[in-house]
């Protein structure tokens, strides 16, 4: 590769020069060299690290910075910066050096991590200088604190408030040496005077595993509860002072089992009152990205936005899961439950019975306000496959319809036999059900015969008088491998033929996709999320067995117009709320397993179908 036209030093010599500059850690000089030509850009890139760790003042001071202005090509810094406490004392005097040297210069740090550290008990003026310098690192949007001790809650709050663009806060084993005076009126008053964290939206308390493992540590509980109790206390009005919400902008809160295992109904209610913007609350475990139970409720005035509360059951201890579900039932907080998505556990183990009973109680508690019920038939994701002849028995004790009148029923994880879904539908007693969405596990070619028989029997079940008011039945399935478009169209046409009664009522919709969603087939009545309206597709098979699918006017259906108009309005409203709650998180540019993206329960089916029959 040639650096430029005409005479030049040999490539090997340039490489030695750049290595020497890199060894001096003069990143500004390296960044300027990278702007000379493409060759230099290629050679310098490996020396400009995305992740830097500082464990001493010497490490910070060893980095050379040019006095020249940034406009002429200085380095904009790493994306990830980590401050680690000194080995024995855990002291971090280098945090002040780091902030003063790089504030205003390093403008692309977006994750700051402080770990294994003890924040210095310095004078107020020294702390103020550090926080002032940190406020100039305006690119930081994530703050991670792991095994950090602060001299006071006010110091911790000042650090969080110092970062003007902070959006995400991750706390793991953060302790306070001055916790004895935590609820002192002076402490509360000083905390209320801190600048509000206007951009902070996501808080994670507890462990998020790099390796997908979860370990329950009961002793970690006090580290978090005193912090949560203080946030609740500081949000309460003090005398004639107005109510202050230090984390009032937070809309997503994720708690690890080590935090929530001893929660009470009153502590949950106080937390909801202290976080007025909260939209998503997750009682999670370190290795879980998806909630096994999700409740969506509408709080009373003045809070108008729905709240989604998720409970991750798979690897949490069953007694803790049952306890937190019952706490949600008993909490003194005005929440009208509109939507529940829940895993239906087989009654094969004591642990399953404990959780399933609590879920049944929650559904009964929701009562008539529940209009959208989703059921996942996978059970415990670590179970072995249960024999077909026992597939129906596992759901017969799931009494989910005794006190409810849902208009929408969603059933996920169905197999080709349709045994589980038929058993669930046999418990429906309300004529209010207007739509039934049935999502199958991944379908194989060998399932075609069994699927046809299963759908035919399902078609018969949906002819029962209790389903006379049905307006839409969606059959959704994914194939685990690439499928030609023509083959998928034949599958869809065959499935329609197996459900001839629903097809004649013009309420049937079928949607099939292959593994990568490169091919998609729609047949019958389909809700189109892009246009927020209905589409209809019809199929014909010629004498050679070829299937042709074409779009036809959606208004050809026979459903009563008023009922369909009301159902369409409900679909649009539900889609708007779902889009708002499950907005995609920004992609991490490194360490993707360290930061688990949250997935709402509505997306759980897609996760399971993508990962196979046995669950996530």
TrEMBL record:
Positions of region (Disordered): 555-593
**Protein name in the entry:** F-box domain-containing protein
Provide the species name.
Postia placenta MAD-698-R-SB12
